[in-house]
Amino acid sequence: MTTQELATVCRQVRRDIINMTANAGSGHPGGSLSAVELMTGVFFTQMRVDPKNPHDPDRDRFVLSKGHAAPCYYGVLAEKGFISRDEFKNFRQLHSILQGHPDAKKVPGVDASTGSLGQGVSIANGMALGAKVLGKDTRVYVLCGDGECQEGQIWEAFMAAAHYKLDNLTVMIDWNGLQIDGTNDQVMSLGDLPAKLRAFGFDLHEVADGNDIAQVVDALNAPGVPGKPKCILAHTVKGKGVSFMENQVGWHGKAPNEEQRQQALQELEG
Amino acid sequence: MSEKLATREAYGKALVELGAQNDKVVVLDADLAGATMTKLFKAAYPDRFFDMGIAEADMVNTAAGLSTMGLIPFASTFAMFGAGRAYEQVRNSIAYPKFNVKLCMTHAGLSVGEDGGSHQSIEDLALMRVIPGMTVIVPADANETRKAVFALAEFNGPSYLRLARLASPVFEEDYPFEIGKACVLREGTDVAVFACGLMVNESLEAAKLLEKDGISAAVINVSTIKPIDAECVTKYAKKCGAVVTVEEHSTIGGLGDAVADVLMGKVNCKFHKIGVPDQFGQSGKALDVLREYGLAADLIAPVIKASL
């Protein structure tokens, strides 16, 4: 897929995020919009998955540790052909497969149920460890939020990833700098995150613009270091692509109204 | 009952036996392999054993990930940490997606002994029982533990196995084990005593004492707390007209409540729960601590008698 084609997918996923959250009247547009390139990059340039055989035991795995970015996940899964766009209207509604946070029992292409923060890396570690036990070449990807890195379990899992030399694991961090109550620094500073990640044993790849699909793909394609888990620390913009949402704390967990939806969609025109 | 063996030790031995037959079995621990007895598996199959360090939340979620790869993870630490500290991880990342993880937690209940109240988990059955779809098993002795381990390996879904630190009598009679089935170990007509774990043996001994007083007590080993054997519970409650539950657990939320849930509004009978009242445990030798809370045969018998 060309960079141009990937950018088209990203734009469509952004429109899906706006439509899904606007229809539902709730959801998390900000952190969904910031993660679009990371998730699109992984699903369209890295993962060996087959939408017709979503439970193929030999597939690569993805865990959305920041499960509230579900609208982005669902958009990407629809673009890949795992689910139908018709489902979008049921997002967050009774009896829908599209729960507010991803449910592995319900959605083809979802490998772990997430939403309670801090748990995804541990789950991904288990998958990566399992692949090694079974002698499979499975690659495992996990996407974390930055605020999520305030959870102690994240660091337990980082320690374990290095300890067990999980070089089949890629941790991506969507570093948009904002969380519910304010900026990371206002709420609980992450400090020198790159230095901490290196100290925890990662092969670290910092991406200057994590909303530039070419830069994200370059980082994903960069050869890893044998015996080390890989980490892509991506500087992103919360609410990316919608002018009135960009870098606004208030758009973490608020849906656009009809007028805002129309404006957002207009800005996201191809 | 000549031999004594802790259920944790039977667990460790069973894992080794299971590991030889099934190469999908993997075992995780959180720096307590020497105490939970997973060290036996570690020694036999080091490539399938993962020490996750003192990080219980991480351990249970790593087990979740392993299960999605088609492996059969058994994760162990003390009940306080596996069911308590990692509760929400168990709830959301194992039970919610119905992952096939076996949570086998040792040092449950008061019989931890000297380590004291901070380590005596008397809430784990309540915590695990309330999670939708969680299977909860408390084996009564070493033989049943072995059978439960093998049954769990064949079973697909989230499950919790409660094990004890204290060496306890191994029943001479080899009775059957099936997930979801209670087992009548002693017939009786005046009172149905439903017990689990170490309290099964105490209840059997209490029944002998009651017999001297002319009270005929049936003793039923309810090793599967959830899904509970409602048919057996109902049958014996009706037959005896009086029910007593005995458990090394809080009287809130454990076996007693599970039995009450079956009977409430359906069977008219006397009902009494024996267990740890609404309070924490304390340090002491295991048997002394159990006695302090009334969980010994000679203390259980008069309570049963008084309840009739």
Account of the protein in words:
- The complex is a heterodimer of chains A (270) and B (308).
- In chain A, strands 1-2-3-7-6 form a five-stranded parallel β-sheet, sandwiched between helices. In chain A, strands 4-5 form a two-stranded antiparallel ribbon.
- The longest helix of chain A is centred in the first third of the chain and has 22 residues, at 3-24.
- The two termini of chain A are 18 Å apart.
- Chain A has one domain (3-267): Thiamin diphosphate (ThDP)-binding fold, Pyr/PP domains (Rossmann fold), CATH 3.40.50.970.
- Chain A is 40% helix and 12% strand.
- Chain A is globular, with a radius of gyration of 17 Å.
- Chain A has ten helices and seven strands.
- Chain A has helices at residues 3-24, 29-34, 36-45, 70-80, 120-134, 152-163, 184-188, 193-199, 213-221, 258-267; strands at residues 61-64, 140-145, 169-175, 178-179, 182-183, 203-207, 230-235.
- With 270 residues, chain A is an alpha/beta fold.
- Chain B is of the alpha/beta class.
- Chain B has two domains: 4-169, 3-Layer(aba) Sandwich (Rossmann fold); 183-307, Rossmann fold, CATH 3.40.50.
- In chain B, 41% of the residues lie in helices and 20% in strands.
- Chain B has 13 helices and 14 strands.
- Chain B has helices at residues 7-21, 33-36, 39-44, 56-68, 79-85, 87-95, 124-129, 142-154, 199-212, 230-240, 255-263, 286-292, 297-307; strands at residues 4-5, 25-29, 49-51, 72-76, 102-105, 135-137, 159-162, 168-169, 183-186, 191-195, 217-221, 224-226, 242-250, 270-276.
- In chain B, helix 8 links the parallel strand 6 and strand 7.
- In chain B, helix 1 (7-21) runs parallel beside helix 8 (142-154) and helix 9 crosses helix 13 (297-307).
- The longest helix of chain B is centred in the first third of the chain and has 15 residues, at 7-21.
- Chain B starts with a strand and ends with a helix.
- The A-B interface holds A 57, 61, 63, 103-105, 111-116, 118-119, 122-131, 133-134, 136, 138, 152-153, 156-157, 159-160, 163-164 and B 26, 47-48, 50, 52-53, 55, 57-71, 73, 88-89, 92-93, 96-98.
